[in-house]
Amino acid sequence: MSGKSYTKTIKDLSPVLYEHIDEPDRAVYEVRRGELDLKTKTCYDETTIFNGLLGVELPKTFGHYHPRNKEGYFFPELYTVLEGQAWFLLQKADKSNPKVIQEAILVKAAKGEKIIMPLGFGHLSVNPEKKDLKLANWKAEFDNDYQIYESLHGACYYLLELKDGSVDIIKNSFYEMVPELIKVKPKKLPEELKNLEFLTKPEKYLNLLTVENCFEKI
Ligand SMILES: [Fe+2]
């Protein structure tokens, strides 16, 4: 690890939270940036999402979309769960209207599993347990685009904890169209993807990077 790290607080996340929370300086998650791997041209980061509800909302990251590579294909990303259990909320928007969502997917993953973020999906990570969640991710060298999540007050769904401990999933009314949320778990990472070339050259692996190949319904 390069040692570079930053912490996101309640105040930093306030544009995407379900409700106002009066603890601006509380840390929600911490990201430790790794060095660029010169062989694979990928970056490795670790993120810890701390235990603790955000009001009634499950602790989460801000959410972002990825840019396209120079061949014109959106960059995918690869995650693994280091500690805890992880949920990933994925959404694919209409090309001309980010308020219209075509696909919304909730991926539930356990410690040790690998999870691909398929091409064109915005995503955020959620900590559904009462303990810290630690994730690692590999991606090509690019900057995330947070703007759509910021302007639409978060993802197309909010995950809220009810008094009995169950989770209520409600649509974000700033979106115009939100499909039913599909719940899935990750499929095993194919051998062909283990060299990580798909992160920089997704166009060579399109047949493996479909939603159907990455996930199975639960
Ligand atoms: Fe990402």
From TrEMBL:
EC number: 5.3.1.9
Keywords, ordered alphabetically: Gluconeogenesis, Glycolysis
Domain of life of the source: Bacteria
GO cellular component: cytoplasm
UniProt GO MF annotations: glucose-6-phosphate isomerase activity
InterPro entries: G6P_isomerase_prok, RmlC-like_jellyroll, RmlC_Cupin_sf
The family this protein is said to belong to: Belongs to the archaeal-type GPI family.
Name under which the protein is recorded: glucose-6-phosphate isomerase
Organism from which the protein derives: Candidatus Giovannonibacteria bacterium RIFCSPLOWO2_12_FULL_44_15
Lineage: Bacteria, Candidatus Giovannoniibacteriota
